[in-house]
Structure formats: structure tokens, C-alpha cells
């Protein structure tokens, strides 16, 4: 049995140390069939163009449910009926059980308008569905958060960040308008020019201002390939300098870093290229099932110590961390990157996060609770060095995910202290390698540093902030005004009530 764990029953030992048996022979085939059927359904609906006509009646059904909630006395608050295990957040929400659940079957792409350069989608459309549909038409949304199952609704109501964010900002900054059903049952549309207060209050509001029914997102032309340059860098000062320089260079369409120790990283910069610019000998289709997991491929380049250039299909690039769930899958299927496994079963990967969540046992949950950290910390790039040094001392988890993003000074929950500024998302996912790791104390210390640096934590993961501390990290001024104006107080809980540790299991 694995060192350091104290599990008594044989079942627990089997379910943890041999979880891969269950994952490989049960969850993987189910994930594959589920994905295939979902793909087939979206494909048929998109080709028949039946979604736009059906959208109106789906919105009416949500309005009917809100009216029903009003008629039945508004005794509990509302949330969406999407089951907790289906979401990409780390934990299952507990609040759903006691709330009035609104069924939102909003899963379709409504319209691609290449003249206006927009796509209109329902909130349950996921990143894989959107990037594949747009990719075939030669377009893309400017920011494609990389995990296949992330939904537009979750990314708007929470947030999304990717390696093009140094140009485009966070997911909400590429959104042009939101359609919502409000607490009084009315439908409203908001954008920068129309109901702009509501438009700026929606991001990070976690479904507590209204029910999202459609989102209009900017699209840009996409090439089939990107040229990706991998630059191994040694020394923390050099890493920070290279990262800062490349993030500010707008000629780079994509910038990302993977840091493998306190003083070793690979900084990757990508540019969209025409087919005629692709050097055939340097094509790497990293999305193919038999390819090495992306973070392992990058690690090899670090070890070789030489710059490298590759041409990568753009959809493969967007979803480069999907097959290995960044580096989280190595703890669940330890041989997932083994060449035999990749060739024989790799085509069914990735296993669906939702199925992993659904079948997570209490023992595995405890293991993650006590021996694992999952956090995305968004801090100004000027504080990058200080933060990385602190994370090295307090958790020593590698690789670290480094992703720059521009944060405009818009009104709302999340904005820089004074003016538009370049931020970095430092993703810390894995087993801490320090003796004094304490899940609550260590995470709180990290949160304190982030707050001191004028930063924010992403709320799909655990937050151990008290309500006062949470209010200090996230600006609630506009949010509270909108909640009063739209009579949300009786209709939806506050964000904190949805994301604090007691609300999640
Ligand atoms: C087939 C298989 C499936 C697994 N599935 C899961 C799973 O679904 N969820 C899960 O959390 N772990 C999973 N693990 C990790 C497992 O619990 C053990 O951590 C792993 O077997 C290696 O532990 P070790 O003590 O032998 O070695 P080491 O890697 O040296 O472990 C050192 C310490 O870290 C702890 N640790 C290792 N991995 C993790 C982790 N992922 N999270 C928290 N602490 C960890 C160990 O318990 C131990 O105390 C799986 C492992 C295997 C082999
Ligand atoms: N690269 C990235 O940027 C990554 C981002 N993430 C995070 O994952 C989360 C997204 O996961 P996902 O599974 O898509 O979303 P979730 O189902 O987790 O939804 C997140 C929140 O959005 C609310 N919400 C979703 N749809 C609607 C809607 N139609 N109307 C009102 N509220 C809605 C949910 O409300 P309710 O509780 O009522 O259901 C919930 O509070 C985000 O928080 C994101 O930040 C995770 C990994 C990577
Ligand atoms: C901003 C960015 C890039 C975030 C990346 C976040 C990923 C690393 C997160 C998102 C969902 C996530 C929290 C998840 C898990 C690992 C880390 C993930 C993949 C796992 C699979 C770990 C194992 C757990 O038993 C369980 C299955 C519950 C979760 C599910 C969600």
C-alpha cells in the first residue's frame, strides 16, 4: 500500500492504489461513448440549424420556472439544476440540495456570424464543441481555456484564462453581450453599451445575479497551424525576465511557461502561421492519442537545454493539457504516459472529469484534502518572483503553470488596483513536497500573500478566506448595487455563500 496513507479496508486500498483498473476499464470506455454521442448530437443540431428556433422556447421554460418559484413563495434561493459532479470545479456544491433548481438545457451553438465576427452560444456549450465547430470554419474564439469540458456559462460566471490572455484578457473580456433571465422572470440583454452596469457585474458572480441563457463572443480568423517556440531558461531572474518580455511582445499570439523547479522553466511562445509557412519536417500533432503528454514533452526539451521550434495543429495546441488534465492524471493513471498504454488505450483519453468526480470515494477525497493542493493564483507580473519563491518554500509543487494575462481596469469584482496591468496566473497543482504542509494553514498563507500582492484566487478551487477577507480580495461595490437593484437578495445566494469551503464537499 502507498506510503503515508492510513486506509483500513481492502476496498479502500483497491479503490486508491488500483483506481486505474476502474478508470481504464470502466470510466474510459464510458467517457469515450459519452463524448461520441454528445459530439454526434451537437453535429446534427448544428447542421440542421434547429438550435436558434428552439432557443426561444428554452428561455421561456426558464422564465416559467422562475415564475413558479415566485408563486410558490420564494422560500429558498435559486441555482441551476446542473448536478455538482458534472462541473469542472474541484468540489461538489452542497447548496444545490436545498435550493430551487432551475433546469437549463442550453447546450447549443446558436449562430456563427463571420461578417460581424461573433458567435452566439448557449451557456452549456463546451470548449471542445466550440473550438472544433469554429475550427472547421476557419475561425476561433480568441481565448480557448484548454480543458474540453469547460462550459461558456461557467467561464463567464467564473473566469477563464489561456495563453492568448496576454492580448485578450480573461474570458469575460472577449464576451460582447449576455442574455439573462432575472429574478423577476424577465429576459434582459446587456453589453458595454446597453445595461453596462449589469454587463460588468456578471463576471465572477457565479450565477447570483441571474440565469444566463446566451452569450455573444468575439471570433477571430484562425490558421490551421501555430509555430511554437520552446525556450528552456535557467535561473529564476532569467525566467521572470524572459516571461515578462515575451508577455509584453504582442507579436506573440500565445505565451505560456512550465516551471519544473525553482530555477528551471520552459517559456513557450506561439504564432499563428499560414499553411505555406509550415516546415513539414517540424510538424508535431500533439493531440494524437499516442503522443507523449504535453508537459512531459516540454520537460524533455528542458533536459536537452536547446531552443526548439514545432508546428502544431491549432486545435491540438488549444487542448494540449486536456489528455493529462495538466499533470493531475499521473496520480490517477500512473502509467498513462507509457508508450504501450498510449498506443493501446490512449485513443479513449481523456477520462471525463465529471465521471472521476462522480466515482470519487471518501478515501480519495481525504487524500486530496490532506496531501494535495490545487490553486490558480492571479497576481501582477511584477510580483511573480516573490510569489514563486513563496510557493517553493510553502509547497514545492512542480511543474507550475505560468500564464500571463492583461487585466483592464473595468468596473466589477476583479480589476487591478489602479490601472490596466499585466498579470500572471500561477497554477499550483499536485502533491506538496515539504514537511510542514497543512491544507488550511498553507493555503491561507498563500491567499494572504496573493491579497497583499493585489491578486485574486480562482474560485473553482478551495478558498479558505473568511467573508471579510473575501470582500477585501474581490470588489463587491458594483455587485452589491446590482443585487439590490435586481432584487437578487431573496433570489440568489451571495458568491461567498457558493464558494466558501462549507458550501462545498
Ligand atoms: C493506480 C493508481 C491510481 C491512483 N488514483 C488516485 C486517485 O484517484 N486519487 C488520488 O488522490 N491518488 C491516486 N493515486 C495515488 C495513490 O494514492 C498513491 O499516492 C500512489 O500509489 C503513490 O504513493 P506512494 O506513497 O507509493 O509514493 P509517493 O508518490 O512517494 O507518495 C508520497 C506521498 O504523497 C501522497 N500522494 C501521492 N499521490 C497523491 C495524490 N494524488 N494526492 C495526494 N497525495 C498523494 C502519498 O499518499 C504519500 O503520502 C493513485 C495511484 C495509483 C497507483
Ligand atoms: N483555463 C481555465 O480558465 C480554467 C477555468 N476553470 C474554472 O472552472 C469553472 C467552469 O467550470 P464549468 O463546469 O464550466 O462551470 P460550473 O458548472 O462549475 O459553473 C460555475 C458557476 O457558474 C454558474 N453558472 C453556470 N452556468 C450558468 C447559467 N447558465 N446561469 C447562471 N449561472 C451559471 C454556476 O452556478 P450554479 O452553482 O447555480 O450551477 C456556478 O456557480 C470556472 O469557475 C472556471 O474559472 C477550471 C479549469 C480551467
Ligand atoms: C486555470 C486553469 C488552467 C486551471 C486548471 C485546473 C485543473 C488542473 C483542475 C480543474 C478541475 C480539477 C480541479 C479536477 C481534478 C484535478 C485538477 C483539475 C483538473 C481532479 C481530477 C483530481 C482528482 C479528484 O479525485 C477529482 C476527480 C475530484 C478532481 C476533479 C476536478
TrEMBL record:
Q: Does the keyword Transmembrane helix apply?
A: yes
What is any one of the record's Gene Ontology cellular component terms? Golgi membrane
Cited Gene3D superfamilies: 3.30.465.10
Q: Name one GO molecular function term.
A: Delta24-sterol reductase activity
GO process terms (BP): cholesterol metabolic process
InterPro entries membership: Diminuto-like, FAD-bd_PCMH, FAD-bd_PCMH-like_sf, FAD-bd_PCMH_sub2, Oxid_FAD_bind_N
Tell me which residues make up the FAD-binding PCMH-type domain.
Answer: 46-222
Tell me where it resides.
Answer: Endoplasmic reticulum membrane; Golgi apparatus membrane; Peroxisome
Any idea of its EC number?
Answer: 1.3.1.72
The catalysed reaction is: lanosterol + NADPH + H(+) = 24,25-dihydrolanosterol + NADP(+); 5alpha-cholest-8-en-3beta-ol + NADP(+) = zymosterol + NADPH + H(+)
Tell me where on the tree of life, at the top rank, the source sits.
Answer: Eukaryota
For activity, the cofactor(s) needed are: FAD
- Tell me the subunit arrangement: Homodimer.
Under the heading PANTHER family, the entry gives: 24-DEHYDROCHOLESTEROL REDUCTASE, DELTA(24)-STEROL REDUCTASE
Q: Tell me, in a sentence or two, what this protein's role is.
A: Catalyzes the reduction of the delta-24 double bond of sterol intermediates during cholesterol biosynthesis. In addition to its cholesterol-synthesizing activity, can protect cells from oxidative stress by reducing caspase 3 activity during apoptosis induced by oxidative stress. Also protects against amyloid-beta peptide-induced apoptosis.
- Spell out the protein name for this chain: Delta(24)-sterol reductase
Record organism = Phlebotomus papatasi (Sandfly)
Q: What is the lineage of its organism?
A: Eukaryota, Metazoa, Ecdysozoa, Arthropoda, Hexapoda
Amino acid at each position: 500500500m502507498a506510503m503515508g496513507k492510513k486506509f483500513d479496508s481492502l476496498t479502500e486500498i483497491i479503490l486508491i492504489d488500483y483506481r486505474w483498473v476502474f478508470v481504464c476499464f470502466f470510466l474510459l470506455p464510458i467517457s469515450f461513448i459519452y463524448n461520441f454521442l454528445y459530439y454526434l448530437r451537437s453535429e446534427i443540431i448544428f447542421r440542421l440549424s434547429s438550435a436558434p428556433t428552439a432557443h426561444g422556447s428554452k428561455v421561456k421554460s426558464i422564465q416559467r420556472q422562475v415564475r413558479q418559484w415566485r408563486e410558490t413563495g420564494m422560500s429558498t434561493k435559486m441555482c441551476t439544476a446542473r448536478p455538482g459532479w458534472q462541473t469542472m470545479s474541484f468540489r461538489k456544491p452542497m447548496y444545490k440540495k436545498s435550493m430551487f433548481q432551475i433546469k437549463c438545457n442550453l447546450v447549443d451553438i446558436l449562430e456563427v456570424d463571420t461578417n460581424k465576427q461573433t458567435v452566439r452560444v448557449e451557456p452549456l456549450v463546451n470548449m471542445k464543441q466550440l473550438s472544433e465547430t469554429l475550427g472547421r470554419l476557419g475561425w476561433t474564439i480568441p481565448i480557448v481555456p484548454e480543458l474540453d469540458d469547460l462550459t461558456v456559462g461557467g467561464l463567464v460566471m467564473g473566469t477563464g484564462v489561456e495563453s492568448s490572455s496576454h492580448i485578450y484578457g480573461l474570458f469575460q473580456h472577449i464576451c460582447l453581450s449576455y442574455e439573462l433571465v432575472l429574478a423577476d422572470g424577465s429576459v434582459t440583454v446587456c453589453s458595454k453599451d446597453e445595461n453596462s452596469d449589469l454587463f460588468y457585474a456578471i463576471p465572477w458572480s457565479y450565477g447570483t445575479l441571474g440565469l444566463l441563457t446566451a452569450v455573444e463572443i468575439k471570433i477571430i480568423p484562425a490558421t490551421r497551424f501555430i509555430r511554437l517556440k520552446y525556450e528552456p531558461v535557467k535561473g529564476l531572474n532569467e525566467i521572470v525576465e524572459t516571461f515578462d518580455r515575451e508577455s509584453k511582445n504582442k507579436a506573440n499570439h500565445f505565451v505560456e511557461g512550465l516551471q519544473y523547479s525553482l530555477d528551471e522553466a520552459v517559456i513557450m511562445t506561439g504564432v499563428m502561421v499560414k499553411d505555406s509557412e509550415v516546415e513539414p519536417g517540424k510538424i508535431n500533432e500533439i493531440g494524437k492519442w499516442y503522443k507523449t503528454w504535453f508537459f512531459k514533452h516540454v520537460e524533455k526539451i528542458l533536459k536537452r537545454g536547446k531552443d526548439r521550434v514545432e508546428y502544431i495543429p491549432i486545435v491540438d495546441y488549444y487542448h494540449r493539457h486536456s489528455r493529462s488534465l495538466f499533470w493531475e492524471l499521473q496520480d490517477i493513471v500512473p502509467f498513462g504516459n507509457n508508450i504501450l498504454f498510449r498506443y493501446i488505450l490512449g485513443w479513449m483519453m481523456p477520462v471525463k472529469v465529471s465521471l472521476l468526480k462522480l466515482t470519487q470515494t471518501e478515501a480519495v477525497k481525504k487524500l486530496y484534502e490532506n496531501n494535495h493542493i490545487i490553486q490558480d493564483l492571479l497576481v501582477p507580473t511584477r510580483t511573480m518572483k516573490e510569489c514563486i519563491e513563496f510557493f517553493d518554500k510553502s509547497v514545492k509543487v512542480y511543474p507550475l503553470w505560468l500564464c500571463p494575462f492583461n487585466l483592464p481596469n473595468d468596473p466589477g469584482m476583479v480589476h487591478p488596483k489602479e490601472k490596466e496591468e499585466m498579470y500572471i496566473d500561477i497554477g499550483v497543482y499536485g502533491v506538496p513536497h515539504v514537511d510542514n504542509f497543512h491544507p488550511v494553514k498553507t493555503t491561507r498563507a498563500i491567499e494572504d500573500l496573493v491579497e497583499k500582492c493585489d491578486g485574486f484566487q480562482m474560485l473553482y478551487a478551495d478558498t479558505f478566506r473568511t467573508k471579510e477577507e473575501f470582500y477585501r480580495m474581490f470588489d463587491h461595490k458594483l455587485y452589491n448595487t446590482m443585487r439590490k437593484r435586481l432584487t437578487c437578495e431573496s433570489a440568489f445566494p451571495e458568491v461567498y455563500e457558493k464558494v466558501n469551503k462549507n458550501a462545498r464537499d
